[in-house]
C-alpha cells in the first residue's frame, strides 16, 4: 500500500511523481460527461492495485474530491485500508477467495460481490454472525467468462439471494457484469453482452429483487457506449488520465491528463564508437559514434523488458530511445552530446513538454497503458514515489 513519500522535490536516483490534481480533474471531467445526459449514472472510480500504481489513498481522496460517489477495489484488504484511512463513502470489493471472512467488510459497510450460491452462503453466514445485513452485488457472467455466475446458474443465485434477503442477512444492493470488448465499439460481443445483461435483470426482477444500482460499463463503455450505463459506471484507467480505447480516441481528445511521471538521473554518460555493442547479447550495435547515458532502473523496478531497443525517453528536452536490452537494475539510452551524469531522463509523463507518455511506452512494448503505470507504481522498486497537488508541493 502507499506510504508517505520521504523525498522532497529533489531526488538522487529516480522518482515516480503522481499529480493528484490531475486525477481529481479527470474524474470531474468524466462525471460531467455522464451527467450531461438525462438521468446520468453515478460514478465509481476503481482504485484497485494501489490505484493502478498511483497510490491507494491519494487516488481515492482525489477521486472523491472529483465527484466519485463510489470506489471500487478488487480485494478485501484494499477496502479495509480505505476505511482505516477515513473513507466513509460507498466501496465495492469484488474478488474474494473461498473461506474468506466477510465479517469485517460487513461491519465496515463495504459492499461485496457474490459470484455463486456458495459464496453468497458464506456472505450470509458472516452477516448473521455480526448481526448486520450484507450489501451484496450479484455478478452475472454475460460473456467475459471470468468472474460471475454463468447464465445457467444465475436463477439459482438470484433465488438464494432473495431467500437470504427475506431472512434479513443480505440486501441486494447491486446487479452487475463486465464487458469484454468495450474498447472496440463495433465488436458484436458488446450487443450480445448487453442482451444477456437485460435477460439477467429480468430474471432478478421476476424473483422480486430490487437492486439499488445496476452496472455494466467500465471506462471504455462509459465513454463509448451510453446504452450500457444503467445506474452506475465504473471508471478505471481513464481516471488516471489514459484512454481506455486509444485506437478509437486519445486521452487528449477526451480532455484527460496523465497523472504519473517517471524520471531518473543518469548514473553515467559516455561516448561509444561505431560497431560497439550495447547491453546483454549485443542486440543493439551502434551504427554511428554516439553519446549514451545509463538509467538506474530496470525490470526489478517495473521497467518492461519488452522496452528493450524500442521504448522512447526524453533527454535534455530531446526524444531518444532505449538501446539494447533492459537489465534488472539499469538500461542504456542514446543521449545528446554534452549529457553528463546526473542529467534528468524522463521516461514518460503527461506529454505536455514533448516527453513520451505511458501510452507511447505501451505501444512500444506491445501492451496496454494499464500495465505500464501499474507495474511502475506497484513494483517494490527503487524509485522514490511522491504525490503533488496543484502547485506541485508534496501532499
How would you portray this structure in words?
Helices cover 31% and strands 23% of the residues. The protein has 395 residues and is of the alpha/beta class. The protein folds into 2 domains: 69-238, TIM Barrel, CATH 3.20.20.10; 260-388, Lyase, Ornithine Decarboxylase, Chain A, domain 1 (Beta Barrel), CATH 2.40.37.10. The strands form 3 sheets. It has a 9-stranded mixed sheet. Strands 2-3-4-5-6-7-8-9 form an 8-stranded parallel β-barrel, surrounded by 6 helices. A two-stranded antiparallel ribbon has the order 12-13. It is elongated, with a radius of gyration of 23 Å.
What's this, in brief?
With 395 residues, the chain is of the alpha/beta class.
Helix-strand blueprint:
Blueprint (H helix, E strand, L loop, with lengths): L13 E6 H16 L6 E5 L1 H5 L3 H11 L3 E4 L2 H9 L5 E4 L9 H5 L3 E4 L2 H14 L3 E6 L11 H16 L3 E7 L11 H19 L6 E5 L1 H6 L7 E4 L15 H4 L5 E6 L2 E5 L4 E2 L5 E2 L4 E6 L16 E4 L2 E6 L7 E5 L8 E5 L9 H8 L3 H10 L5 E5 L7
Parallel strand pairs: 1-19, 2-3, 2-9, 3-4, 4-5, 5-6, 6-7, 7-8, 8-9
Antiparallel strand pairs: 1-10, 10-18, 11-14, 12-13, 14-17, 15-16, 15-18, 16-17
Helix pairs in contact: 1-3, 6-7, 7-8, 11-12
